[in-house]
Amino acid sequence: MKEDEKLLLNLKKRKRDALDKVMKEYTPYVSVIIYNIIGNIMTKEDVEEATADVFVGLWKHTDSLDSEKGTVKAYLGAAARNCAKNKLRQVSVHQELDERMTAENPEPVAYLEQREKQKQLIHLISTLGETDSELFMRYYYYDEKISKIAKLTGMNASTIKTRLARGRKKLKEMLDHEGRRL
Fold first, then answer.
1. pTM
2. How far is CA 133 from the centre of its chain?
3. Which DSSP string do the residues of 107-147 spell out, in sequence order?
4. pLDDT tens, residue by residue, 113-132
5. DSSP 3-state assignment of 178?
6. What is d(CA 16, CA 51) in angstroms, rounded to the nearest whole number?
7. Neighbours of 133 (CB within 10 A)
8. Domains along the chain?
9. Which residues contact 32 (CB under 8 A, 6 or more apart)?
10. Is residue 156 very low, low, confident or very high in pLDDT (cuts 50, 70, 90)?
11. Contacts of 163 (CB under 8 A, 6+ apart)
C-alpha cells in the first residue's frame, strides 16, 4: 500500500494523527497556492485562515475522497485554489486596497510594486523544491525559529541553515539571471 493510500485510509478512519501528518507535510504547499491567489489583496491572517479552512474541509469531506481519482496533495491543491477564490469573492477589492494602501504606504504605486515583488519571490521560492520551499516558508514567512523547524521536520539545525543559505544563493542567481531586483 502506497504511503498516500495509507494516509487516506487513516483519514477515513478519523485518526487525528493522520490529519496532523497531512497538515505538517502540506501546510507550506497549501499556503503558497493560497498566497499566490490572494496574497496581493488580503492580509497574512486571511491567508492563514484560508489555509486552515482547507484542512478543516479535508477533515469534513474525507469520506468522499477516492485514492483512484487522485492524491491527497492533488485534493489539497484544488481545495486551496477554490478556497482562495471564494475568499476573493467575499471581499470588496477596492475598499481593501484603499485601506491598506494608505495604512502601509502613502504611495500607491510603490505599494503595488512591493506586493508584486513579494508575489514573484514566493513563486521563485516554490521552484526550489518541496523541502527547501517548506524551509523558506517556515523560516521567512511564518517566522519560525530554526530549532522549531528542526524539531518539526526532523532535520538537523545545521542542515537547515545550510539549505537556507544555498537557497538564498540560488534565488539570487535566479533573480540575477532574469535581471530582476527585489
1. 0.50
2. 9
3. -HHHHHHHHHHHHHHHHHHHTT-HHHHHHHIIIIIS---HH
4. 777 777 777 778 888 888 88
5. helix
6. 18
7. 20
8. 1-91 (1.10.1740.10), 107-182 (1.10.10.10)
9. 122, 125, 126, 133, 137
10. very high
11. 131, 132, 135
